[in-house]
Design the sequence.
């Protein structure tokens, strides 16, 4: 994320979309935590992540990740991207 953060800031980005990783307890958690520490406003697609252990996934999705990112689903992202400005 460090190299990506510099690139995003250089282009004036205020929003970082987490597009890497699949495992909630692995790359997703790591990337979201790092981006939140860098003060990005984050949207995590809740219907596009999973984990081998359902209890771990549910705990992260209910107790940890909502404090770091806005949890939305793919349909909500499409609506956000297509709304008039």
Sequence:
């Amino acid at each position: 994320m460090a190299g990506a953060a510099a690139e995003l800031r250089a282009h004036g980005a205020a929003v970082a979309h987490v597009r890497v990783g699949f495992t909630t307890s692995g790359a997703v958690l790591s990337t979201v935590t790092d981006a939140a520490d860098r003060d990005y406003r984050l949207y995590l697609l809740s219907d596009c992540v999973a984990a081998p252990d359902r209890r771990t996934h549910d705990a992260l999705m209910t107790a940890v990740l909502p404090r770091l990112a806005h949890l939305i689903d793919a349909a909500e992202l499409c609506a956000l991207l297509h709304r008039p400005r």
Observations:
- The helical segments are 2-10, 24-37, 54-64, 74-82.
- The chain has one domain: 15-82.
- The mean pLDDT is 83.
- The CA atoms of residues 18 and 44 lie 6 Å apart.
